[in-house]
Specification:
By secondary structure, this protein is an all-alpha fold. The protein has one domain. It is about 80% helix and about 0% strand. It has 19 helices and no strands. Helix 12 runs parallel beside helix 15. The radius of gyration is 23 Å and the shape is globular. The protein starts with a helix and ends in a 14-residue tail after the last helix.
Length: about 525
Amino acid sequence: MSLARAIATVGSFTLLSRLVGFARDIVLSAVLGSGAVADAFFVAFKLPNFFRRLFAEGAFSAAFVPLFARELHDGGRAEALAFARQAQAALLLVLVPFTVLLILAMPWVMAILAPGMRDDAPTFALAIEFGRIAFPYLLFISLTSLYGGVLNSIDRFAHVAATPILLNLALIGAVLGLTPFLPNSGYAAAIGVAIAGVLQWLWLLVACARDGVGMSLVRPRWTARVARLVKLATPVAIGGGVQQISAVLDVVWASLLPVGTISALYYADRIAQLPLGVVGIAIGTALLPLLARELRAGQAASAMTNQNRAIEFGLLFSLPAAVALWLLADPIIRMLFERGRFGPEDTWRAAGALAAFATGLPAFVLVKALAPGFFAREDTRTPLYVALGAIAANIALNLFFLFATTLAHVGIALASSLSGWLNAALLAVVLLRRRQWVPDPRLISRTVRVGGATLGMGAALWVVLTWLAPPLARADLMGGAALAGVCLLGTLVYAALGALLGVVKLSELRYVLRRQPGLKSSDPGEQP
């Protein structure tokens, strides 16, 4: 499967998942609102997600996928599958006792995660209960991530990309169906998270069996392959841990601010995650196994070309998305969430955070396109050192924005964006110095053209926003129609300018959807 087809497959299912996720967040904002119960649930939900990104999507995936690709190339599917089963046994050996320990230690964990909540005893008690209910999600989603790495490595992207839809559906169903029978909607949401973990695990377990890579249980054994996996995963775990500590610190900072701040940052981040998920995560998911296979086969030129195309693809969508989210933050938040328990003041808080998150969107996408250049070469230490520098900057920026300015929660989001740019810049510099990534003429040319089209789109949006300010200030049908019209206009302007400037050509779209770019091009810098 070509890189473009893989990105398109992952991106399309991720887009569907994000749209269902919007429906989920609309339900959550209407039922939970952004008060004490919502803050308690979002803190509790943050905890298994912290370790999910550390164990599953972070360290484990980055180390496992290149090693699985090596086993596929050298020993065939049988050897690769035996390694995957050994990895599953090792993962269970760590995660089962860890999950039990964290559930028992939840009061102390919550005291570290949200110290500001301890002054509000009822909210703090809810966060502990919600955390205990939701935390088993970690065990099942970690296994799900392992199965996803196996399926992606054999070019089975669709089932993996569709998996997050189950989380969104489970949360919607639980909140709407269970809330009337429970003390409050937070309990229903926490139960929905736990149910979602089981559903996602079963979904990919069945998918693996269908594709001939059934993940049966084996006895844990310390083998050379498992030792190599641990050796590669440890630096990523440390780096991911530091990165996730930064995310947890965002909750700590927010818990020191007025009630509703944690919820506002959550809703803003959910909107910002749409383009990041559709583009950034799709690129990272599709690129890593492809680079690992090509580098293992000695096709370094093809790998570099694919990385250039991935960066080009990321900028094509992330730059206009960042400008649009920055300009449209207020009407987007208002139309999606301002109803029920979510009021105008909540819209104001979340919109400010969304605008700040939007400034870092291209950087987050670039990190997803650059990091596989290290992981595919089984280099997990360099991204660790880069992450340490970026996280140190994030903490320093948070302290500055919170205590030396009046930016409050907006400063928390802005610090994340600025540290994201530092992360991307450092990764790019290291790859450039090692000559493991060299921007080709096509990437440089297209980046300039994408920038020009984005500026033109931004100017058009600014003019229309000024003209349609009264209807956009309303959270009703008229406001929704105005927002839809603005979004459509922005899309058409960007597409027209892109066609005029030659950002994307129809012949190239047909080409990349048929073949893997870079394999048979006489000029890797400008194909076809």
